[in-house]
Specification:
7 helices
């Protein structure tokens, strides 16, 4: 996190969410959190690892305090657009959701998307 701040990036620890709310200085801060051992492969770019799409979609469900504005119908739209526009690795996503103990709500959101249902019907 200090490396990000050294580069001028607005970075906060997830456990310090109150400071994030209080001191946010940019419109797009980074929230740094510890990795799970089953964390999906994270792509590296210049020594900074960014989350892949599957992880971001699961995190939207798990971290409602950070992503509160993306709940309800907006969350369903995000899932629908992500599955229609990108190649989503559903098994990786569900494995990560299970590790975060949110497999059921993630699966429910996926079942509302046409792309997931198309793939499930092929199996």
């Amino acid at each position: 996190m200090s490396a990000l701040r050294g580069e001028g990036v607005d970075a906060y620890a997830k456990k310090d969410y109150r400071a994030l709310e209080r001191y946010i200085s940019s419109s797009q801060p980074f929230v740094v959190r510890p990795e799970l051992t089953v964390n999906p492969n994270l792509p590296r770019r210049k020594n900074i690892r960014a989350a892949n799409l599957e992880k971001l979609l699961v995190d939207l469900v798990c971290d409602k305090d950070i992503y509160g504005q993306y709940q309800g119908e907006e969350l369903r739209n995000i899932y629908r657009n992500a599955t229609e526009g990108y190649a989503v690795n559903y098994s990786r996503m569900l494995r990560y959701a299970a590790a975060r103990k949110k497999k059921a709500p993630v699966l429910e959101l996926l079942r509302e998307t046409g792309e997931y249902n198309k793939i499930r019907s092929l199996l």
